């Protein structure tokens, strides 16, 4: 059923691709493209990954300095960051579509120069699905569903990998020293929730609150997830010697690459969940393998 | 005054030269001041009078030799020098929230040891200093609330509190009304009578002529030193100011009046 | 007759001491769940308490108390440094970060974070000593650079200008590093806003040592500092070794600032507000003024830390925001009162 709808949708989109498409981006701007873009500039890593996942990597002519996946985009010209794009360089590439985050300050300038700028900033799973569909429409790709299916499949695999004992366990996810935690309402928090974990930082505190370190000691999370560079010295923080997860080393660390996967609400979301699940599997080995 | 003991001159300067920014501001200065004299220093604006006083007080790098009370300042203990020579500058700041009393007490710093506190003697000296400049009554007021003249008298008292045998005043009469100018003059005479040596830069030339001796500075050089009563000094004074002033004598007192431009050209033709 | 009003500074000092104690006690009650009740904390501190009680006791001794004390000590260091800065520069707008120490500490932390970011091995000692030591070293290096650039400490204007130059250049350096490592932005922001979150007993010990050194130097140079108020020339004419004094004071300033910044990041306004408030409360005499400024700074930061923890518990507000609100608000009130009373300022 899903496939029939997908094909119909694809047919519709393809016809529209010939007639020109119009979409409304995350900032409410309506952008119209007469034909499928052949020169795309992406100024946001998750959008870069989405474009490639939709099979249009070859149409990218320039990316921001933080886009690093897949490896092929690293060879493309780097046009500054999302917050400080090089306007001139972008313009010089004569793109027929510029993808930027909603929070990008250069987008207005680029639009004023006459470029077609679409601002999308996926922050959650639902956002990513929507963005993928929007991008598919824009790029004239028949169907975004395979990509979404892949994400779902990854999530399913992650959930399957989750050891039974890990379900319902309390987790503390530290985003950076501060300590800034990933709250339940953040994207990372949603991933953790999908894996069946309970975040010690509730949704009422916002997505990335700066918390009182005491909270961690009081809540005694079962699992701590932190960047590998921040792990050393964590146990030396005043009072944190008592955190049982640190004593028993029930810690999942992530390096820079893992960090990218976990933080970007893009096509690799499910991968992030998968890596977490794999770590948890190591921490809680299933009883039958003992 | 009989000089039964040969006292060394209070100040002796040989070959003093001060350069600021590579340019000589004061050069070839030689003079000597005996102890117990009041010497006034005059000259046109920018002549180098303040620079001279600052150099004597050791505030500017200077070449040449300066002897204070018979001893070369180069070899002198800085603490001893600070007790021997008090300097009062022109337009110096004073810490607006401090009381007059606090400011004058700071004048006792040269006598206080590094960690020592104030002694009863210090308080007495400060009181005496404030009384002598008629500033005792409002010693509790903070400097920021004083008028120009009141403030000046407090700063004078601060210099007096040092109780140094040699006192250098740079424009001590600024902001002072005539009665207080007269007070200052009486004070200086009293100090000198007690054995102190006072050098004062004054642009009130009439007042300057009340001193014992006068030094004239012009274009960074010392052009005359002489007793104020001497008519040669009067003529030299007129010369230093390009004949724009005339020194008259009234009731035995010297008086300086500006000369009108027409009369100046008349003098030249004469 | 008394020259300095010894009575009032002493009374004020006692009052501030009591307020500090009160804040520290309240601090032991304030935590991630808002205010705990005093009886429950007392019960937890007794021997033979249950599991929860023992946990609470550990939290009080190891987290809340060192944090409160540390906040006070950092605030005291900043207050003292501010008093010294205002003395040395004879400028009421001077603050401890003038000579580039803030930018130097930031760059130090930035570079340390970068070094730690990639390295997995040997991060243990680096993590502990690293950030603290880097901030401190950065602050000292910046101040020395400033003094070198100004070619000695003789002229205050040149020193101030050199400080501005060093601050801007090192700040640009930090921006450059962050550009290349954007993942450190949030950590750096935490440092820039200031945080008392991770101050432990060892941090307190270091800060206490620095504070004692600073206070000793200030007390010893106290009378001479007063002399500086009369202007550099007058001070010199009275035998004060003005240049040597400046060096000592600037180094002490750097020490105090570096020690505070190393443990709590860049907390704004304490170093500026504390000496001002001190001056408005009691007649200025360098010794008493500096000690008072230290106590006021400590009180301000301790209060800000307490509120930072309480207002949106268990999340925290940046403590720098609160110091600005509290310190600035009180200063404003004092100024209005002075103007209302008709004092000629």
CATH topology (level 3) name of chain B: Rossmann fold
User: Based on CA inertia axes, which overall geometry of chain C fits?
Assistant: globular
Biggest interface pair, residues each?
A-C, 34 and 41 residues
How many discrete structural domains of chain C? 1
Helix content of chain B: 25-40%
Fold topology:
The complex is a heterotrimer of chains A (290), B (270) and C (345).
Chain A: H1 2-19, E1 21-24, E2 30-33, E3 40-42, H2 45-53, E4 60-63, H3 87-92, E5 97-100, H4 107-112, E6 117-119, H5 125-139, H6 145-161, E7 170-176, E8 180-181, H7 187-194, E9 198-199, H8 213-219, E10 223-227, H9 228-231, H10 244-247, E11 251-254, H11 256-263, H12 269-283
Parallel strand pairs in A: 3-4, 3-5, 5-6, 7-9, 7-10, 10-11
Antiparallel strand pairs in A: 1-2, 7-8
Chain B: E1 11-20, E2 23-33, E3 38-42, H1 49-56, E4 63-68, E5 71-72, H2 78-84, E6 85-88, H3 100-106, H4 120-132, H5 148-161, E7 166-170, H6 178-193, E8 197-201, H7 205-208, E9 213-218, E10 221-227, H8 231-240, E11 245-250, E12 253-258, H9 261-269
Parallel strand pairs in B: 3-8, 3-9, 6-7, 7-8
Antiparallel strand pairs in B: 1-2, 1-4, 4-5, 9-10, 11-12
Helix pairs in contact in B: 3-5, 4-5
Chain C: H1 7-29, E1 30-31, E2 34-35, H2 38-45, H3 51-89, H4 101-118, H5 123-149, H6 156-180, H7 185-193, H8 201-220, H9 222-228, H10 232-237, H11 242-264, H12 270-281, H13 286-310, H14 319-340
Antiparallel strand pairs in C: 1-2
Explain this structure:
The complex is a heterotrimer of chains A (290), B (270) and C (345). Chain A has 290 residues and is of the alpha/beta class. Chain A has 2 domains: 2-143, Rossmann fold (3-Layer(aba) Sandwich), CATH 3.40.50.1980; 156-289, 3-Layer(aba) Sandwich (Rossmann fold). Chain A has 12 helices and 11 strands. In chain A, helix 6 runs parallel beside helix 12 (269-283). Chain A is globular, with a radius of gyration of 21 Å. Chain B is α/β, with parallel strands linked by helices and 270 residues long. Chain B has helices spanning 49-56, 78-84, 100-106, 120-132, 148-161, 178-193, 205-208, 231-240, 261-269; strands at residues 11-20, 23-33, 38-42, 63-68, 71-72, 85-88, 166-170, 197-201, 213-218, 221-227, 245-250, 253-258. Chain B has a 6-stranded mixed β-sheet, with helices on both faces. In chain B, helix 3 packs parallel to helix 5 and helix 4 crosses helix 5. The longest helix of chain B is centred in the C-terminal third of the chain and has 16 residues, at 178-193. In chain C, helix 3 packs across helix 12 (270-281) and helix 4 runs antiparallel to helix 5 (123-149). Chain C has a two-stranded antiparallel sheet. Chain C has helices spanning 7-29, 38-45, 51-89, 101-118, 123-149, 156-180, 185-193, 201-220, 222-228, 232-237, 242-264, 270-281, 286-310, 319-340; strands at residues 30-31, 34-35. In chain C, 77% of the residues lie in helices and 1% in strands. By secondary structure, chain C is mainly alpha-helical. The B-C interface holds B 54, 57-59, 78-79, 81-83, 85-89, 92-95, 97-99, 101-103, 105-107, 109-110, 112, 114-115, 118, 123, 144-145, 158, 162 and C 1, 3-4, 90, 220, 223-224, 226-227, 229-231, 233-234, 236-241, 279, 283-285, 343-345.
